[in-house]
Amino acid sequence: MPDLPRVALVGIHGYGVHQRRAIEEHEAAGRARLVGLADPVPPDDPSDGAPQTAVPWFPDLRTMLDTARPDVVVVATPIHTHTDLATLALRAGCDVLLEKPPTASLEELDRLLGTVAETGREVQVGFQTFGSAALDVIHDAVAAGELGEVRSVDVVGTWVRPESYFTRSEWAGRRTLGGRAVVDGVVTNPLAHAVAAALHLAGARTTDDVVSVELDQYRANDIEADDTSAVRVVTSGGVRVVLGLTLCAATHSVPTVTVRGTAGTATLDYYADTVTFRTADGERTVAAERTHLLTNLLDHRDDPSVPLLSPLRGTGAFMRVLDAVRAAPDPTPVPAEHVERVTDDAGTHRVVHDVEAWCARVAAEGRTFAELGAPWARGQVHASATHPSAHASDAPRPDLEDRA
Ligand SMILES: NC(=O)c1ccc[n+]([C@@H]2O[C@H](COP(=O)([O-])OP(=O)(O)OC[C@H]3O[C@@H](n4cnc5c(N)ncnc54)[C@H](O)[C@@H]3O)[C@@H](O)[C@H]2O)c1
């Protein structure tokens, strides 16, 4: 039997449960061996309901690296731990599948890119939508001129998150923790896939592909971070990306990402990996396959000519948005008279009145909640000229220029 890549997981509860299952599926398919689990909370903690395990467990990543000697480490820990843990794994000679958002600031992204270059290892970022061929379907249609000239990409993301979501971990809903950036708001974490997919479809991958970010951010929950945000981005290609996002909808719905051209639109459903085209020829829906990002990372290890689908440097445009959120003022609280506390099948959750309609208007009209005059939106739109050279006060950062 050939030597299978030794894969280990750090962060085994929460989303780590899904990542463990994915590694086990690769093991069952003869692609990998699961050689270790690292987490301060052991896998058989009965309060977590995680399965008992015969796979060696370690209380921290360093011990696991020394003992289990993995080739690949999957990191599914809180955002503010990503840079240190990924750095440790890279320096131990491992490739890394790193959960999104990759880091908690651009400065951390820079450092991690430096470690990637220094070690010659790879970091694949867990934007699983980047594994969807639905993105290629849209890019190909745009390249073939089917949509005419692309002017904008817009997103409507209206989710429900119960109050328990924000109390599950100490970092949930925090902007910082113990002096470290966390940036766990609707834009940068729960609906990060929608943000990342929209930027991808707008042709923005690297830090330099984003010219400006404008933010109009609110919170109805008792958290530090935003749970309801309007975001407007302009790319270096002149495409406007507009997002109306909330975790305070009355009911949960599938986010939509719509590419708008002069001759038609293409709407991505990134749950189903389908694209619906609407042009003068009518409407058609195309279904696409998805490649798991671990499969792609293992394929790339076997054959470096297979490109990574979500390389660290390709998340630079998303990280420009994250960094604008990190640096922005605190979100404005939504006045209590505009918020209802509802208990239903989704648990106890906050609902901002008519927020679905306001998010839809943000996307359709390209204006923020405050600009539209939403009755609960008293915030200031925070503009961030995010291209490094746009800031006279910023030192030149040539290190950012090659994030291809
Ligand atoms: N790709 C997706 O669709 C998706 C979905 C959900 C979460 N995530 C991402 O997964 C990551 C984890 O999120 P979560 O909601 O599961 O968090 P969580 O707080 O619920 O779980 C984090 C786990 O990491 C462990 N942990 C914390 N610090 C650690 C350390 N230093 N070393 C080892 N283990 C440590 C915790 O004990 C816990 O088991 C985040 O980056 C999040 O954005 C991705």
Any idea what the shape is? globular
Oligomer: single chain
Cα-atom radius of gyration: 21 Å
Indicate the structural class: alpha/beta
Q: What's the pLDDT, averaged over the residues?
A: 93
- Count of structural domains: 2
Which architecture name of the largest domain does CATH use?
Answer: 2-Layer Sandwich
Strand content: 25-35%
Percent of residues in helical segments? 25-40%
Report the span from N to C terminus: 38 Å
Query: How large is the count of helical segments?
Result: 12
The CATH H-level superfamily of the largest domain is: Dihydrodipicolinate Reductase, domain 2
The fold-level CATH name of the largest domain is: Dihydrodipicolinate Reductase, domain 2
Throw out a few tags for this protein.
Rossmann fold, 2 domains, binds nicotinamide-adenine-dinucleotide, globular, Dihydrodipicolinate Reductase, domain 2, 6-stranded parallel β-sheet, 28% helix, alpha/beta, disordered C terminus, 404 residues
Description:
By secondary structure, the chain is of the alpha/beta class. It folds into two domains: 6-128, NAD(P)-binding Rossmann-like Domain (Rossmann fold); 133-289 and 310-401, 2-Layer Sandwich (Dihydrodipicolinate Reductase, domain 2). It is 28% helix and 26% strand. Strand 8 (176-177) and strand 9 form a beta hairpin. Helix 3 runs parallel beside helix 4 (106-119). The longest helix is centred in the N-terminal third of the chain and has 14 residues, at 106-119. The two termini are 38 Å apart. Nicotinamide-adenine-dinucleotide is lined by residues 10-16, 38-41, 60-61, 76-79, 81, 99-100, 126, 128, 168-169, 189.
